[in-house]
Design goal:
The structure is a single chain. With 544 residues, the protein is mostly helical. 69% of the residues lie in helices and 4% in strands. The protein contains 23 helices and 7 strands. The chain has a 5-stranded parallel β-sheet with strand order 4-1-5-6-7, sandwiched between helices. The chain has a two-stranded antiparallel ribbon with strand order 2-3. A hairpin with a 2-residue loop joins strand 2 and strand 3. The termini are far apart.
């Protein structure tokens, strides 16, 4: 009778019971161990009895019988023994009724008389049934009991192949080795099927997470539509605020419709107000709140509500300064605080308070230099440096500083932005920034009396803006740059004494301004330029 057929008979799966030399196998295995290893034995016992053999292997016929779904029951003497007057009799009975023996090997097990006797008794009772070794601690020569390495013949010793549970041993593979030994399935097949099962489990969990995420997103949308305040605020915190600060803002700037952002800004700020103590918010939320305040200030400033904008800028500045103090070398925090410095300086600059604007613009320039120092190849850092240099250029020009100082600042701004444009030749916004730097260079040259050079800079600005408008005809920002380039060219022709040549660009500037105001009547910058262009145009009309 083959071994597989015999064990199949032992577990009641067919065969000839009379052919078996011992009692039926009641237990899949008997765990033999030293009492010192009680904790490990208990954990291993629980894992083996709860382990589910991969479904594709269940039912196969191996040398150990038919592969079961679970490897239970497994005998562990201190857990399984009933009240008995004779411990030896109970252990012997369990050994006789076990299909295999698992020996937990350690120096303590090697010294244990009872572990050795359990091995010897099992081998004497079932010489054809497997004895599996699990190496827990120590070197094999110190951990294997003598009865385990004695093959029954005089003076012949053999070291069994053990599942190595030691640190740096087989890892999870150690337990699978025992599964292979108990089931008779090849180890590589157990490993492969177990890995496939784990992969399916991970895929199922991932799918569940995806489904849960989709369900949550649907609930959030329903909550927004149902105007559930708590869920709406959560959505704002996780998505709406960031969308407003990035994609939505860029799109509305492109069509000149920042007026409709007012209610969104207020809702975003209300979310943070509902959080109570701002000191309990994480740094990322505080930074996002500061960016909301900066955006709101910019919108209010464009609408002419300068005092309101100044309050928002100051609150943003207070927050970004504190965040930067926590992490002074964090590039993102340097960048965010640089924006706060710029906005405060810009309010003073627009009000003609150049001495008050100077410290903020200088701080912005210093922060931009720090960004470049952190990563000289970072295009965003170079771009900020170009902006900061441009601010100093405009400030020195407006405050009528020494012309050498003005020209130096404006050349520095133009040079920095040319580097950014070289790094990002396809970036339309960078090209627009470059056009603006040509414009400031032109103004500096004009202030120093170098009209022909100034006209060349303005014409270069116009060439860049023309290309931008051809690619995006409805972009309000490009249309504004186009308007200002035409107006400035007209004024330079006037300075050069060619008022006839000034007529066409002046009329183009007037028409472009009218289109801009039609898209956003509340934009104070465009209304201001309408008056300036109108005054200049009337002067030209009288001459022609």
């Amino acid at each position: 009778m083959g071994r597989a057929a015999k064990l199949a008979t032992d577990f009641g799966e067919g065969g000839d019971p009379a052919a078996d030399v011992g009692p039926p196998a009641r237990y899949r295995a008997f765990i033999s161990y030293s009492h010192v290893d009680e904790t490990v034995a208990r954990r291993l016992h629980r894992w083996l009895e709860t382990y589910r053999i991969p479904a594709r292997l269940v039912g196969q016929i191996t040398e150990e019988g038919t592969v079961p779904r679970r490897l239970s029951p497994i005998f562990r003497d201190r857990n399984e023994l009933p009240a008995s007057s004779s411990l030896d009799d109970a252990v012997k009975a369990a050994l006789a009724e076990s299909a295999s023996l698992i020996v937990l090997c350690s120096p303590d097990a090697a010294r244990s008389r009872w572990v050795g006797e359990e091995i010897s008794h099992f081998r004497a009772t079932h010489p054809d049934r497997p004895v599996l070794a699990a190496l827990l601690r120590g070197a094999p020569e110190d951990a294997f009991p003598a009865a385990l390495i004695d093959d029954g013949e005089a003076e012949r010793k053999r070291e069994p192949v053990a599942a190595d549970f030691r640190k740096g041993g087989d890892g999870k593979l150690a337990r699978l080795k025992l599964v292979a030994g108990l089931s008779g399935v090849a180890l590589d097949e157990i490993v492969q099927r177990d890995a496939q099962r784990q992969l399916r489990r991970v895929m199922a969990i991932t799918l569940g997470m995806i489904v849960s995420t989709l369900i949550l997103a649907m609930l959030l949308i329903v909550a927004l539509e149902a105007r559930n305040e708590a869920e709406r605020q959560r959505q704002q915190a996780e998505g709406l605020i960031e969308f407003m600060l990035t994609d939505l803002r860029s799109r509305l700037q492109g069509v000149g419709r920042l007026d409709i952002l007012g209610s969104v800004n207020e809702r975003a700020l209300a979310y943070y107000g509902a959080q109570g103590d701002l000191g309990r918010l994480p740094s990322s939320s505080l930074e996002r709140r500061a960016r909301v305040l900066q955006a709101m200030g910019a919108d209010d400033q464009r609408r002419g509500a300068v005092d309101m904008a100044l309050n928002e800028y100051r609150e943003a500045h207070r927050t970004t300064r504190a965040l930067l103090a926590e992490k002074p070398n964090d590039a993102q925090r340097i960048f965010t605080h640089a924006q706060s410095e710029f906005f405060l300086g810009y309010v003073d600059y627009q009000r003609g308070r150049y001495d008050a604007a100077r410290p903020h613009f200088q701080a912005y320039l210093d922060l931009a230099r720090r960004l470049v120092a952190i990563d000289p190849h970072d295009v965003r850092a170079l771009r900020e440096y170009g902006y900061a240099q441009g601010n100093m250029c405009s400030l020195e020009l407006s405050s009528k500083a020494n012309m050498a100082q003005v020209l130096g600042a404006c050349r520095g701004a133009l040079s920095a932005m040319k580097k950014v444009a070289a790094a990002r030749p396809a970036d339309a916004e960078v090209r627009n920034d470059l056009a603006n730097r040509h414009a400031w260079m032109a103004d500096a040259l004009r202030a120093s009396g170098r009209m022909r050079e100034a006209l060349a800079e303005r014409q270069e600005q116009a060439r860049i803006v023309d290309d931008l408008l051809r690619s995006d005809p409805i972009n309000a920002g490009y249309r504004q740059s186009w308007m200002l380039s035409r107006y400035s060219i007209a004024m330079l022709y006037v300075d050069l004494g060619d008022k006839q040549a000034a007529w066409q660009p002046a009329r183009e500037a007037r028409d472009a301004n009218a289109l801009l105001i039609a898209t956003d009547p509340q934009n104070q910058d465009w209304r201001h330029w309408r008056q300036r262009i109108a005054d200049s145009f009337r002067g030209l009309s009288k001459e022609n």
